[in-house]
Amino acid sequence: MSRVYIDEECKMCTSYGKWISSKNLNIDLNAQINLTPEEIELDTLVYEKDGSKYYFSDAVIQSISDIGGVYNFVKIIPGTRVTPNSESTIMSASVFSPVSTWP
Questions:
Q1: In this predicted structure, what is the pLDDT of residue 27?
Q2: pTM here?
């Protein structure tokens, strides 16, 4: 089962969590407090699937794509990227590297 970790004090995060868990019954909704202190410090949505964790917009893209059907198209939007990061590499530069689509 996949997991989405949200900040329960954030209305947008809570709304997204309710929406994604209503679309994908294989997603378990969790509070951000269940993450490591380093992950909590990031103050972002975290999506966990098959032992990989996704952060920031990657978490949104991957979790929406995993709904399936027409939602798979979210991965082909220009400029999107999805790179899983393990807990051991969360603070590495690759997690924070911007993806530029501007020439």
A1: 95
A2: 0.73
